[in-house]
# Entry
Amino acid sequence: EDQVTQSPEALRLQEGESSSLNCSYTVSGLRGLFWYRQDPGKGPEFLFTLYSAGEEKEKERLKATLTKKESFLHITAPKPEDSATYLCAVCDTGNQFYFGTGTSLTVIP
Amino acid sequence: SAVISQKPSRDICQRGTSLTIQCQVDSQVTMMFWYRQQPGQSLTLIATANQGSEATYESGFVIDKFPISRPNLTFSTLTVSNMSPEDSSIYLCSVQSGQGDGYTFGSGTRLTVV
# Structure
């Protein structure tokens, strides 16, 4: 069964303390992997799409990478405004989307 | 990417009543999707709304409980009927943004049933 698992569930970082969030997936055929940011009480906001192993995307302090089994969202020198829940989703070749449960990131000043 | 206006942003409703959530998209789209996000849970697809045809519901969701309208290519509504506290969730509408962007989401409706 297709599945998306994110870890850790929650992460607390000091401002400036870099870290990585993990999204592991099992799908019959990967069409794309997506990262979203979700602030409390709001809808998810698109961050990145990755299509193939080895691909990397960057945006400000965030960098997403992809292997055949997982994706990492690296956060470099985070700031308090980076605090949010980060969601991972995959789309399989049948155009079905599967979402992970997210990692809740808190960055402490 | 498409821009979606969703309302209401939040509501507190009495058990047994119904709430209709509206989504307006700034461009024409073939399919609109309705999701539920329960506390601490992943997004769960409720149904896909196509203009001019009945919505397609996922397993565990039925039309009587979640009737959907799709009168044109830019608008859809989801009604949560005969609500119970278990319906307390965030409800989200979304559209596919075209290649590369996955889904674009509305801002969500936070529903609390008391």
In short: The mean pLDDT of chain A is 93. Chain A touches chain B through 19 residues (CB under 8 Å). The two ends of chain A are 41 Å apart (CA to CA).
